[in-house]
Fold this sequence. Notes:
Elements lengths: L1 E6 L10 H11 L6 E7 L3 E4 L5 E6 L7 E4 L10 H10 L5 E4 L3 H7 L7 E2 L6 H7 L4 E2 L5 E4 L2 E4 L4 H14 L1 H10 L15 H5 L4 H12 L7 H8 L3 H12 L3 H19 L4 H7 L5 H12 L3 H24 L4
Parallel strand pairs: 1-2, 1-5, 2-4, 5-6, 6-10, 7-8
Antiparallel strand pairs: 3-4, 9-10
Helix pairs in contact: 1-5, 5-6, 5-14, 8-9, 9-10, 11-14
Amino acid sequence: MQNIGIILFPGFQVLDLAATTVFEFANLAVDEPVYEISLLSEAGGPVACSAGFAVDTLPFSDTDFDTVLVVGNNHIEPVSPGIVAFLKNVAPRSRRIGSICTGAFILAEAGLLDGRRATTHWFHARDFQRTYPKVKMEEDRIFIIDGPVWTSAGMTSCIDMALALVEKDMGVELAKSVAKKLVVYHRRTGGQSQYSALLELNPKSDRIQTTLAYAKENLHKELSVEQLAEVAHLSARQFSRAFHAETGQSPAKAIENLRVEAARLMIESGRIPIDTIARDAGFGDRERMRRAFLRAFGQPPRFMQRLAQAESRIVVSAHTERRQRGFQ
């Protein structure tokens, strides 16, 4: 039995508790429950969430936990000294420790992220970087694993991280089964972007929306302004002006962002050759794709590929270990 302690505080983001459902369904998928969940707070008793209702909690104690997770909230506020002290005390005795959303601020305040890679909700990432310069903040990640420390982005990314925790503990097939019952994709990889290029553009008119949908389905083509304008039934000049007015980007920049996103997903999906990805995403050659990745992420495609492969090796190794120990 693995005891998971989840630290709550007044005003915590209620969606962060969605992670507990992942562990609940993992328990239902095996003969004997694997996870025991304890909701914790400084004083114990009812703790009100961001939606206004309260959940019951246990007070901090000397109990040992296999995993300790800290949730986040909607507004960055001073961290309670009591929570910091508890984390400093419990972290060395736990197999792993993690944060959901802005809970990364609390781990950082306790010094548990110093020198480590971490992520948090993209909206607060820059503030985090300024406040905790010793932490290697990677603002465009779904979740990050750095040794025994796990950090996730905001909102529904807690489900992705919880599925990854289950996958590491119990194998990929069980994690897939849990995801299926939750009616979610198996899980987004840790390195995946926190937001979609199309959602960021958010065009208003049907013409521009249709043009972007066409572009996304035809990234392997040249996609010049003239071609896109023809799809929108506008002149090239009218199209460029309307596109920038609705999206805040030039057509060329938007297409590059869509290509970068598509290429990144292909990199994360498996061992596809870089040259093939560059061609299928419409870059034409690897050098053009490399320059686009450097503009978007500050890292080349090879770096992203190595991260994806390293994460895959970790998962396979954990699954093999579980099978050798008799947990199939």
